[in-house]
Write a structure and sequence with these properties.
The chain is an alpha/beta fold. It contains 11 helices and 17 strands. It has helices at 50-54, 91-97, 113-122, 146-152, 197-207, 211-214, 244-266, 301-304, 329-336, 351-354, 418-433, and strands at 46-47, 67-73, 101-103, 106-107, 156-161, 178-181, 218-224, 275-281, 286-287, 293-294, 308-311, 318-320, 324-325, 364-368, 377-382, 385-389, 398-402. α5 runs parallel beside α7.
Length: 463
Amino acid sequence: MQLDRSLVLGLPLLAFGCSDPTPAAPAEPAQAPAAEQATAKPTAAVDKTAKHEAAAGKRRWAPGPLNVIMLTIDALRTDMPWNGYSRPIAPNLTKLASRAVVFDDHRSTTSVTAQSLPTVLSGRFTSSLYRSGYFFAGYPDANEFFPELLQAQGVRTMAVQAHMYFDRGKGLNQGFDVWQMVDGITYNEKTDEHVTSEKTAAAMQDLLSKAENTSGQFFAWTHFMDPHHEYVKHAESPDFGSGSRDVYDNEVHYTDHHLGEFLAFAEKQPWWKRTALIITADHGEAFGEHGRNQHAHELYEELVKVPLLVYAPGLDAAHVKGNHTHLDLAPTILELMGKATPSGMQGRSLVPALRGETMPEQAATLELAADNVQAPRRAIVDGRYKLIRFGTKAAQGEKLFDLAEDPGEKRDLSREQPEKAAELSRKLDQRFEAVPTVQPFGGMRLKDGSVANGPQKPSVASL
């Protein structure tokens, strides 16, 4: 494992995945407006298929230890065709959604890649990980990522990546036997200037065609960088128009096409019948909502609510309601693979929901940890209500929204419903009181006014 080597380099104010920190002008409207995001529900019950209902109360799905392939897609919004979006922007994912378990109210814990993917890999809030204070954060090997646990138990661990952030000593490769970059990309910390879906899908096919990688149990992950800004219009995908959302939709379709080619390959492989597939996004994307474009800086729904599809052999298709976040992915993957979940993870396995069981209702807690570009944010979604805190303390300002009546978060109810706002504020405090917060390191001044003078590993006294 390598420690973060970027500590003495510094970064400019704008970095990959980071939109302008000053409010942007509203984006050009798409030809077909986005459908309203799926409404948050106050229950964690499962919408069961007939097969689920026929076997209610029994352990209906127990396939034994599986391989897992995780595909994450950058900046993929939740308003997809299976959620009511009118444009056919993802035919392959839509087909898969009809055969998969779809989590309707899933959220990333945050709105930026360099915090969301480490949460996926660790099952922990970013603020509880050892990390540098740069927007383009690095994660030293004192952190424990679940691929390390798999690797130690003889599981083959592999990844293909398509942005040079993943290959600059940032520590995301901890626990991977194979960590492969697609060819022909250069480093741009402000954006993604390459089109890489075709290369990414081809590299994954090549990786999983080799018997030495798939003869035993394996975990494979790739992050499709398209449709991250800069948005590129592709002639082979539908032309929805020339506005930002239009071109984004075109690029989602392009990414979906190459993802579909990978799925067609995977379904023909001998290992497919013992493999679970997880598809999600690192965060969403804004197109003028709340005065911003792209992502980062805030925790509004357009930035944190993302798709989550799980497909596996013998698994009945279903839609799952209730609040779940990226904290739950690591425990879920470990259970699917027949491995124990370490006590330090802060989420819960979703395998019971995959079986059709009703999981206890739980609030979703979100955070944007402070770095040298972004001020901290925290939020909690409890039933139909969401509270956003503009800092780490209630006194720094909070807004309350009723997502059932106001999915676009346009009307702050904190003054109209002060009791509900106070209730969620207390729950938010209680959640983070249980999280061992770690100050970032590197010596830079953070956006909240503090200095990143934290540790890179546990102190001797804490061991």
